[in-house]
Amino acid sequence: MAPRYIAAIDQGTTSTRFMVFDHTGRIVTTAQKEHRQIYPRPGWVEHDPQEIWSRAQEVVAAGLQQGCLTSRDIIALGVTNQRETTVVWDRKTGTPLCNAIVWQDTRTLDLCKRLTAQGAESWLRSRVGLPLATYFSGPKLTWILENVPGARAKAERGDALFGTVDTWLIWNLTGGVHGGVHVTDVTNASRTMLMDLQTLEWDEEILALFGIPRAMLPEVHSSSETYGLCDGQLAHVPIAGDLGDQQAALVGQTCFSPGEAKNTYGTGCFLLMNTGQQAVPSSAGLLTTVAYQLGRTPPIYALEGSIAMAGALVQWLRDNLGLIEQSGDIEALARTVSDSGGIFLVPAFSGLFAPYWKNDARGVIVGLTGYVNKGHVARAVLEATAWQTREVVDAMNIDAGIPLKAMNVDGGMVGNELLMQFQADILGVPVVRPTYTETTALGAAYAAGLTVGVWRTVGDLQKHWKKDKEWAPQMDPLVREKRYRDWKRAVTRTFAWIEE
């Protein structure tokens, strides 16, 4: 019997998921497992790469078993991943040289300040579309080479390999030390600060600036092609799609026309707008990034607003403060009050991302009075995600010159109807949730399916998108703008908390 399904590994910041889809995009089976969040010091965030690889193998086994499937039922596999998280490992042994440095980590602050003082930021941004910030992989890789014993010597001998998490997984899936393929795609490469946005190749001058040997970098490929064949549980299945998670969600939402946008509410919050074949420079604090490249077609670019803390803020409320037992409990707690009681929570835990890019900011709660209770705090946590999104939308309207008419949303938080209504209220435009909200894995499956001919055109994919629910704005515009001004005042209180 011919293979029937397309699979995806969705390796996120807090968990790894394996999903199998049919030709209509319907979920056939799914399995998911969390992995540890490691915090060695304030501002440092790490993952264990071996644990991530183990979780990937475990969810593949569980998903196949639950669906009564074998590798012979899978026609192709797509991979999508948390972006910017940096892994370095030994080519000969497959052993990581250290824990992965996660995208939220701020240990490269001094390096970024030093390069900024040298005047590197403007010419870097002109080539890579990114501000000089702790968020991206290039500075993290430099930190590893400078601080992990033996790392630079191994890199210069050609014995150390670098990759974002997609690269680490694909290398292991295709055999690891026994011939594993060392590749990445243009979307992940565009988040390293090391790839020229126009040539889609590693930039030798930037590599010299960061002190990174070229030999440790993966080959850069399109987002939709066959990179290699799996061994192990998925033996002989081609890996045929690779996208960073937010770009995968853009594909999963079928935003294939310039001006179409989506916002994903996950660990962080990420708003991407398709800008077509033009890489649009940002004057308002956004990122210029590769949206996707399907095979040999020209690359498609996007503007992106990245917010570090969204679902992660809810987890903080659960795990650090103990105000809720499960993340899903926050909506009920927030509904015990009618508003946030005059407080604003600005979650600059690892600095401020778009549109400010202030590495030295730290989180604050402002407006506290004796009236405030845990319900108000819960509501302020949800509202923080919506206010941050409003700031990104304002910046995107400036850069793209196309006022947003509606917001397509996806991700784990969009089941929170209080948040979705508040988001519509403070944007002043409808918020639209699709039938299938976990679009990241679906986007990776779409990329793989296009490679092997399950779908022939993006038009075939657009037929599967369906609306589940829409929220219309209800807040008085004068109230909205007054509260927005208060939010922006609260944001200024986070600035420059980390002193020289």
3D architecture notes:
By secondary structure, the chain is an alpha/beta fold. Helix content is 34%, strand content 21%. It is built from 16 helices and 21 strands. It has a seven-stranded mixed β-sheet with strand order 15-16-14-13-19-20-21. A six-stranded mixed β-sheet has the order 3-2-1-5-12-11, sandwiched between helices. The longest helix has 27 residues, at 374-400.
In brief:
The chain has 16 helices and 21 strands. It is α/β, with parallel strands linked by helices and 500 residues long.
Within the largest sheet, what's the order of strands? 15-16-14-13-19-20-21
User: If you average the pLDDT, what whole number results?
Assistant: 92
What is the helix content? 25-40%
Which structural category do the helix and sheet elements fall into? Answer: alpha/beta
Q: Which residues sit in consecutive blocks of at least 5 with pLDDT less than 50? A: none
Radius of gyration: 22 Å
| Major sheet details | 7 strands, mixed
Q: How many β-strand stretches?
A: 21
Distance between the amino and carboxyl termini? 65 Å
Strand fraction equals 15-25%
Number of helices: 16
Describe the global form: globular
